[in-house]
Design goal:
Immunoglobulin-like; 4-stranded mixed sheet; 16% helix; 2 domains; alpha+beta; 5 helices; Rossmann fold
Length: 227
């Protein structure tokens, strides 16, 4: 019998701090932290060219009462360009307690196919940058709960092999093939109702499996709260 040498396992690159030193999102149940409540719908659908009016949010704090005037929100909507835009709402009270961040999704749509969107590291509360696909009917029905599919890329999609620009780095996940590549190339079945999120994991640091498991668990928790 011929003995064939096994292919060598590619050497893992050293972890890059910008990908792995990101704080995990805090969804802990603390009654003392302020609570943000959106005014209006969490998902707003606009026709191309239709103007967007920001409705804002309110904040209730156990000790300070209504502190809505101090809320911070970021994000922009270009209603002349098709896209899924995120508006983020955050606040920290006088005791240093932060509210669980809330987001509003504004979908500017026409009859074109839904696209794969980049959510680079730092643009959301997530501990990973990720790719996002929302089905065309997402947000059109009240209390809609579509199925969630989280795609984990292969070794070649690691952030360490990519440009250190967080947005450009996400293209490495697409180039690693799989579901993101199908969506990007227009080969995904648009009749499927799945929300698809594809986080960019990065190289596993020396602490190994436990750390990456904790970080993936944190991403799943983020997805459950925001999608």
């Amino acid at each position: 019998m011929e003995v064939v040498d096994a292919l060598p396992i590619p050497e893992q690159p050293e972890p890059v701090d910008m990908w792995w030193d990101v704080e995990l999102p805090d969804f802990s149940d603390n009654v003392s932290r302020p609570v943000i409540s959106l005014i209006g719908e969490k998902t707003i659908i606009l026709s191309l060219g239709e103007s967007y009016e920001e409705e804002g949010a309110t904040v209730a704090d156990l000790e300070d009462g209504d502190i809505s005037a101090s809320i911070h929100f970021e994000g922009q909507v270009n209603s002349n360009t098709i896209g899924d835009y995120l508006i983020r709402y955050s606040i920290t009270d006088e005791d240093g307690l932060s509210a669980i961040e809330q987001t509003r999704l504004v979908r500017v749509m026409d009859t074109t196919t839904t696209m794969l969107y980049r959510r680079p590291l730092g643009s959301t509360m997530s501990n990973f940058g990720y790719l996002e696909y929302l089905p065309s009917d997402y947000g059109k029905q009240e209390n809609q709960k579509p199925p969630l599919l989280i795609y984990i890329h292969g070794f070649g999609g690691n952030a360490q092999f990519a440009d250190t620009n967080p947005t450009l780095a996400l293209d490495t996940v697409i180039g690693n093939y799989g579901i993101p590549k199908l969506i990007e190339d227009g080969e995904w079945d648009g009749e499927l109702s799945f929300v698809v999120l594809a986080p960019q994991i990065g190289s596993v640091p020396g602490s190994g499996r436990k750390l990456i498991t904790d970080r993936i668990d944190a991403f799943v928790e983020y997805a459950k709260n925001y999608i």
